[in-house]
Amino acid sequence: MTIIQSIILGIVQGLTEFLPISSSAHLNLFPWIFGWQEMPASFDVALHIGTLLAIIIYFYKDWKDLIVGGYNQTIKKKPTLEGKMFWYIVLATIPAGILSLVLDKISEKIVGDDLNVQMLIIAITLIVLGIILYEVDRRSKSTTDYEHITFKQSLWIACSQALAAAFPGVSRSGITMTVARGLGVDRESSAKFSFMLAMPITLAAVIFDITDFVFNASFFIGIITSFLVGFAVIKFLMNYLKKGSFKAFAVYRVIVGIIVIILFMVRT
């Protein structure tokens, strides 16, 4: 993998990991469109380390408060909002992680290694979830903010992440934000809770793939680029969703999906 490719894919990861447009779809699309070699597993890990660092650093104060709150609620028996949210995230992540592993294995057997089939599935999921995201966001009322998310809501939102593991192109952030909106969570809170849920699952995935680490120039370029872009995207989205909707992202998904279908038909 060349340095230019590493930079481009790092930018792609940073842009698409947090926006509801699917990082896995775009990271597959770029090599497919331009005829690049398959992305090494070590580089994929590097990209996720970068965006993981972006989540941790951007929400540093939130994470510190959550951990302290979780400790106080468990050890000192002092219930707090932060302690409640800490355990909501922890408890919701466990079944979500198990379900993701199961569906990922099933998906591997069904989809297989045929790149063209993968691209067609990506196109379909981009379009379908784009339409669902638009309709759910348009119809849903904002009745719950981040501080008042219930355990039931957190469980549904967390478990929805498994669909992203099963179907490339669904988008982890896309499905969690869609489900959160469907459950009445406001847009800004939907994004924040989606990012908070992403940290433990992404951290677990990075640790699980630690044996794939290859410390070369591409590895570090991937981390730095995806971190810098990812951090900027989180900041942008959190500000944008104070007043904006998910319509632009939904439209983008549909357009990209249609383009991929056209390319698929031309190439096959």
Number of strands: 0
Form type: globular
Query: Class by helix and strand content?
Result: mainly alpha
Classify the helix fraction into a percent range.
over 70%
- Secondary structure tally, helices: 12
Assembly state of the chains shown: single chain
Keywords:
0% strand, 268 residues, mainly alpha
Any overview of this molecule?
The protein is mainly alpha-helical. The protein has one domain (3-267). It is 78% helix and 0% strand. It has helices spanning 3-16, 23-34, 41-58, 60-74, 81-111, 115-139, 151-159, 161-166, 172-182, 187-208, 217-240, 247-267. The radius of gyration is 18 Å and the shape is globular. The two termini are 26 Å apart. The model has no long low-confidence stretch (mean pLDDT 92).
Short description:
The protein has 12 helices and no strands. It is mainly alpha-helical and 268 residues long.
List the helices and strands and how they pair.
Elements: H1 3-16, H2 23-34, H3 41-58, H4 60-74, H5 81-111, H6 115-139, H7 151-159, H8 161-166, H9 172-182, H10 187-208, H11 217-240, H12 247-267
